[in-house]
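Predict structure. Chain length: 211.
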Amino acid sequence: MRYLVLLACCLVMACKSDKKYHGEVKEVTTESNLVQDILDFQMGLNASFRNPESSPLPDRYRKDFNGLDFYEPDTSYIVHAKLERTPEAIPFLMKTTTNDHRNEVVYGIAHFELQGTPYQLEIYQSMDEPDEGLEDYLFLPFLDNTNGNETYGGGRYIDLTIPKGDTIVIDFNKAYNPYCVYNKKYSCPLVPRQNYLRTNVRAGVKDFIKE
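Prediction complete.
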């Protein structure tokens, strides 16, 4: 998880998904497989938050941490988007929650439908030297109508991997919060306004309520 990797977010202090490809056995994807994959993601994220070596939570929150608040898995939020690559895109500096900036480029534009309505989102790739194992990492930040009510007001992130073809799977059930939601010591990329979905994306992680 790199912006799970940054998350990840980038660490001012800097604020991540192994893919295995099997060429000979064609696996049949069922509803239960998809739901289990979402549940595995949730368990993995919770485990990283409990681990003092990887958790963004300050000790005062981590010691009583019982798990993040997720929407129930909903496979209607798994979309197979058409990926329009943008090889001529000009790199730019993505603003963050601090004075830091991230060197990014628009890798491509994802075109897809949610509940019968067409949308598109820009997908970004870092221009910095990638960490080992993250050479194919892509970053998808987005805003939607749940922000500020059910989810964090600044939007959420999804980690993706460069696909081999012109289709990319986006699972909104794997949307997570920037690390700065949990700890202001982190500097996190601000979601570009063009990645605002004018709908309620009730999937993934909900807002973090400090008690």
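Summary: Residues 60 and 211 are 10 Å apart (CA to CA).
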